[in-house]
Amino acid sequence: MQKRNLIYLLFTLTLLGILGFSYVSQRSPVISCQQWGFHSPQSSKYYTHPVKIVVEPWRGRHHVYAIFMIPRGYVNDHFFYVTIEGIDTICGVMTTGSQNSVEGMNAKPEYYLIKGWLQTRMALWLMLQGKHTELKQPLNWVLGYTKKNEG
C-alpha cells in the first residue's frame, strides 16, 4: 500500500512540475536590455541611483522596486538597469508619472520621485543565486535621464 502511495505522490509532483514549467514559460518575457535613446543623440546624459530600494518578492508582484529622484525639467529613460557581478544586466520599467511623495519619501525641492519595478521572478532568481545583498545595493541600480528641452 505504501509503495502505491509513493508512486501517486511522485506522479503528482511530476505533473505539478510540468504544469508549473508550462505556466512560467508562457508568461510575458523578461524585459530585455537594449540601448534606449533619448530624444536626441546630442543630449547630455546623466545617471542616478535610487534613494530607496524594496526587495520583497515573497509578497508578490510589485514588491521589488526602486525609487529614484530626478531634477525637475529632466526626463528619464523609461527603463533602469541593475548590474551585478557575474550576472547579465537586468532591466526594469519605470512608472510614467512623477510625484513629490512616494512610499513615505519626499522629493527635495526642484526634484521629483519616480518608481521603477524589477520583475519578481528576476529578483527571486537572483536571490536563489545568493545575490540578495547585491540586489539591495543602490550602486547596482542605475537610471539615465536628460534635460527635457534638449533635442
Note the topology.
Elements: H1 2-26, E1 46-48, E2 52-55, E3 64-71, E4 74-82, E5 90-94, E6 101-102, E7 105-106, E8 111-117, H2 120-128, H3 132-135, E9 141-147
Tertiary shape: elongated
Number of strands: 9
| Strand order, sheet with most strands | 1-9-4-5-8-3-2
- What gyration radius follows from the Cα positions, in whole Å? 20 Å
Helix content: 25-40%
How many helical stretches?
3
What separation lies between the terminal Cα atoms? 75 Å
- Helix- and strand-based class? alpha+beta
Q: How large is the share of residues in beta strands?
A: 25-35%
How does the major sheet shape up? 7 strands, antiparallel
Residue ranges: pLDDT <50 for 5 or more in a row?
none
Order of helices and strands: HEEEEEEEEHHE
Integer average pLDDT:
80
What does this structure look like?
The structure is a single chain. The mean pLDDT is 80. By secondary structure, this protein is of the alpha+beta class. The chain is built from 3 helices and 9 strands; from the N terminus they run αββββββββααβ.
Main traits of this protein?
single chain; 151 residues; alpha+beta; seven-stranded antiparallel sheet; two-stranded antiparallel ribbon; 9 strands; 25% helix; elongated
